[in-house]
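Why does this matter for the project? Reviewers at the last site visit asked to see concrete outputs rather than summary tables. In response, this paragraph embeds two records directly. Each consists of the residue sequence and, immediately after it, the corresponding structure tokens. Nothing has been edited or filtered.
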Amino acid sequence: MTDNTDNQFTNPNILPTGTPQGQSTLQNPEGVAEETTHFGYQTVKKSEKQAKVAEVFSSVARKYDVMNDLMSFGIHRLWKRYAISLTGVRSGQRVLDIAGGTGDLAKVFSREVGRSGRVVLSDINEAMLEVGRTRLINAGCNNVDFVLANAETLEPFADNSFDLVTISFGLRNVTDKDKALLAMHRVLKPGGRLLVLEFSKPVFEPLSKAYDLYSFTALPLMGKLVANDAESYQYLAESIRMHPDQQTLKAMMENAGFVNCDYHNLTGGIVAVHRGFKAHS
């Protein structure tokens, strides 16, 4: 890749490396216990979770696409294709893909919005963002910006900036999901749409038991064999179980101000697509 080509994708809004935007260190007066949250099945301090999640995705970034194909038997591509069909994305729109990682959705959005539109691929993890940036540059996507951003604040982005906001297999890794949903609502234009694609809760008990067995045996083993990292994939399995179920997430979206919220179960509820809209002023 030549320097001139690379310069086409230089985005003045790319944040510097280091502590992600919006991440603050909690100040704890002596004797006051710091709030805790979950990291998989572990209980950790809220201020520690982002760093722990960052370690996981820095470790798996280079093998992320390969592992997704192996773990889902390629079905994740069908899940994403269905989610995209619900976005209503069209020419000229501005799209924000949060926790966009290796750029699966952003690549499609780049084509759909065309020259008159713009796509922002954001991620809190620099290693994941770099994988996505390289992939989309090589694919010739010249209407995409790449921004290091914290989903809980989305600080680089102004209010009412985007027609569509998506987050695919990323919300479960966010420490404060309610805060993130509020930030997503803030950056959407009135009438704009949020789409959340995420692992959820199987609706059939036999499927749920089989899925548990697969997740906690096969996933760490594949992680060890393919990525030499069983621990990260153990966390991914645990994080799925700790994520809110379909109805709970729908209620969280409504509490954040979204209207006309609904969801669609895929593969028996192993994955769900949630959709909500920002009301017209």
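We now turn to the second protein, recorded in exactly the same manner.
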Amino acid sequence: MNGHPAHDQWVIPWNAYAPSRWRHWIGAGLALYVSWRTHAQITFVGSPVDLGRVAPGQRVPLSLEFTNRGSALVVITNVERSCSCLDIQSWTRRVAAGSAGRVEGVFYVPEQVGPLEERITLQGSPGGDHLAHLDFRGRVWQPIEARPGFVSLSPASLAPTLVQIVNQTDTPVELSEPLSDQKRFRATLTALKPGWEFQLAIEPVPPFPNANVFGRIRIKISSDLMKEVLVSVFLPAPTLNRNTQSSNSTPATGTSRPAGP
């Protein structure tokens, strides 16, 4: 009315004079921002999980908390695990924005002594095969260790093979009498330092079969960290003495020779 253009005539689109490459990057940035605001953002509390020192076969209960920090509902359809030693029993299926959930299960420590690294991965929507993951770290060690854990006996010698059993915990333990699952092995346990150091003597028991013999010596332990010590035993099949073989193939001495001409 006063000769000035209407207000909306002053409104110029933001991309009217912007170079094409600017419009591309600005548009991509806006799309990324919108996607980030509506995408699931699952984070685990206390990641990674440090198990510390754990014993072979130890049962570790798991109660793992996670939070949805995004703005969209998350539906968790599966918990992928890196090892069958991770027994996932239940988890929160639907987690609203800003809410928390849990994964419940049990970690069965593998028998292999050494560093431990495993992982679980949450799968669902939105996000597909990888909503979030949680790593487990630690070290598998033997609280009560047999040194060595494997022995090979000789049929040619009835002398016992000695194994040292050492308690590496802070609490003394009691060991049961050794039990062999093979009648060709005899085991005797002696306490060198009761509660702490023991000696296991393993010897072969004749007669020996014409085949390799495998077996285990089991010793029960009065400890919550470890229930038993296992020592694997191998007895190779006996071999024939070469001198005996050669003597059997050589004509006997002292036989009469034909008379000469």
